[in-house]
Amino acid sequence: MGTKRTSRSRAWVARQEKDPYVRKARASAYRSRAVYKLEQLHQKDRLFRRGMVVVDLGAAPGSWSQYAAVKVGSEGVIIAVDRLSFQPIAGVIQIQGDFMHAPVLEVLDKALDGREPDLVISDLAPNLTGVHSVDQAATEDLVVAAGRFAASRLGPKGAFVAKFFEGSQAASVRSEIGDLFQRSQVRKPSASRASSAEVYLVARNPVGGGVSVTDR
User: Fold this and answer.
1) How are beta strands 181-187 and 198-206 bridged, if at all?
2) CATH code that applies to domain 32-206
3) Tens digit of pLDDT for each residue in 35-93?
4) Which one from 18, 37, 163, 188 is the annotated catalytic residue?
5) How many contiguous H segments (helices) and E segments (strands) does the chain have?
6) What distance in Å separates the CA atoms of residue 178 and residue 169, rounded to the nearest whole number?
7) What ranges make up the beta strands (E) of 38-91?
8) What is the pTM of this model?
9) Can you tell me the distance from the alpha carbon of 211 to that of 216, in angstroms, rounded to the nearest whole number?
10) Does the pLDDT at position 5 exceed 60?
11) Domain definitions of the chain by residue range
């Protein structure tokens, strides 16, 4: 088992070293290559504008919040939430905790201070078990919870962006998000590896507020 794990670790390191997005992120002082997925989504869907209020769910290590902070400028507001702590980012309000827990939601809502977010972004991923069916279900639950949070707090013209994985229950996830928003599309940015089942939902115009994060 240890030999297999070491072999996989070496393969991962080798892949990272060859990855042009990893090199580009390092050169630009971004914390993760994932920033280029968000950048490409913005280029396609025009997600950001100056002065926006943005909530970043599952923000660690912080590259999406870094990008968002640049795009919204000093007049904008970025609130980054994650169960893990990560290094501070200038102009970003950071909250450590699980956004599905009521005390964390209270802190988040206090940070919003009555403002309706313009955009909720989510690059959330569960702690993986290695069991595909279990990991798939956990990912789907996170996407739906993030979608419910977004639909309950976004303004009428707000947008929601979330990572999910194509699989046996992907249609169900798309359907649930479709019930929460008037428009939704699936995107596959080129920075997302072709071999990965990872895709992104871009949804706009929540149907209505008052949906609980934990409602099922």
Assistant:
1) antiparallel
2) 3.40.50.150
3) 999 999 999 999 999 999 999 999 999 999 999 999 999 999 999 999 999 999 999 99
4) 163
5) 7, 7
6) 14
7) 53-57, 77-82
8) 0.86
9) 10
10) no
11) 1-30, 32-206
